[in-house]
Structures are given as structure tokens and as C-alpha cells.
Design a protein that fits this description.
173 residues, alpha/beta, Glutaredoxin, six-stranded mixed β-sheet, 6 helices, 6 strands, 40% helix, 16% strand, disordered N terminus
Length: 173
């Protein structure tokens, strides 16, 4: 499973590099999103067992997500190499998401969860302990220990200090 997910990410990066080298796209317009279903997005989290995970669920069209995103990026950058950062965009259309992400130094590969049927996201994330039921209060941030157990989730995550402390604790042996 891990190899398949790795290959998908490498394929996306290769495509972006090929487009940029071909002169058909600049680095800013070559943003490639990893597209996933809710189930395959949940599998990304499961595949990271052995490493703490910072999971973020957001929408580029959500004003709270947009306002929190710079702080989320800083949190992700501070923990790069110590934890895996998985940022899941739940936008209905990927184009506003691409525009939102253009020009940003992302410390993670952007994941777009394709539009889903009602209840599908809840069903996929529930076994992980993540509660995404009802109307998402975005952004949602969760810290997951290396053994796969949920430390805590915050929704809407407006103050990231608790997430920072939980992630730091999860990284400690």
C-alpha cells in the first residue's frame, strides 16, 4: 500500500517537473493535486503508521480556512521531517483550490478529495477516530500518534497552540 501511494506522489511530482521543463507551464502553474476518494484519503493516514501525523481538512473557499492557512503552513514547516503533514482539501471544484495554493511554499503534497456522496467522508474517516460528521467546521486539524491513535482534533481550528503542543508531544519517543 505504501509503495502505491509513494508512486502516486512521485508521478504527480514528475508530471509537474515535466510540464515545467517543457516550457508549457511555469512552476506556479504546474501545481498538481493528488486526487483521492474519501477512502483513499483515509488510507494515506493509515499508511503513515510509525510516524506522527498532522492531518488538516480545509476548503480554499472557506473564509476560516483561508485565514488560518498561513499559520497551518508555519506549523507544518516547523514539524517537517518529524511528522507527516497530510492536508486534505474538500473543495467541490479543484480550480479554486489550485488558484489558492499557487505561489505558496507548501511543506506537503496537496491532496484534493474529489466530491463524494453524503456520508462517505464520515464513513472513511471514522475508523481513524476522526469526527467529520455533519457540516464540517473548517479547518479541522488532528494530531495522530505514530501508533495510529488520535491524540485530539480541533474544529474549527483557529488557535493552533494546542495542536502545536500535541504534535510536539506525539513526536517525542
Amino acid at each position: 500500500m505504501r509503495m502505491g501511494l509513494y508512486a502516486l506522489t512521485v508521478k504527480s511530482l514528475y508530471l509537474a517537473a515535466a510540464l515545467a521543463l517543457a516550457g508549457r507551464a511555469s512552476a506556479d502553474t504546474a501545481l498538481v493535486l493528488d486526487e483521492h476518494t474519501p477512502a483513499s484519503a483515509a488510507a494515506l493516514i493509515t499508511a503513515e503508521r510509525g510516524t506522527p501525523v498532522l492531518a488538516v481538512v480545509y476548503a480554499s473557499t472557506c473564509s476560516r480556512s483561508r485565514a488560518s492557512f498561513p499559520r497551518i503552513l508555519e506549523l507544518a514547516k516547523r514539524h517537517a521531517g518529524k511528522a507527516t503533514v497530510l492536508a486534505f482539501a474538500v473543495d467541490q471544484n479543484p480550480e479554486p483550490l489550485r488558484q489558492f495554493l499557487l505561489g505558496r511554499a507548501l511543506p506537503f503534497s496537496p491532496v484534493w478529495i474529489k466530491p463524494w456522496q453524503k456520508g462517505e467522508l464520515v464513513k472513511a474517516f471514522k475508523p481513524l477516530g476522526l469526527n467529520v460528521s455533519g457540516v464540517l467546521e473548517m479547518p479541522l486539524i488532528a494530531v495522530i500518534k505514530s501508533d495510529g491513535t488520535l491524540v485530539q482534533q480541533w474544529s474549527p481550528a483557529l488557535d493552533l497552540s494546542q495542536a502545536e503542543a500535541a504534535l510536539t508531544a506525539a513526536e517525542s519517543p
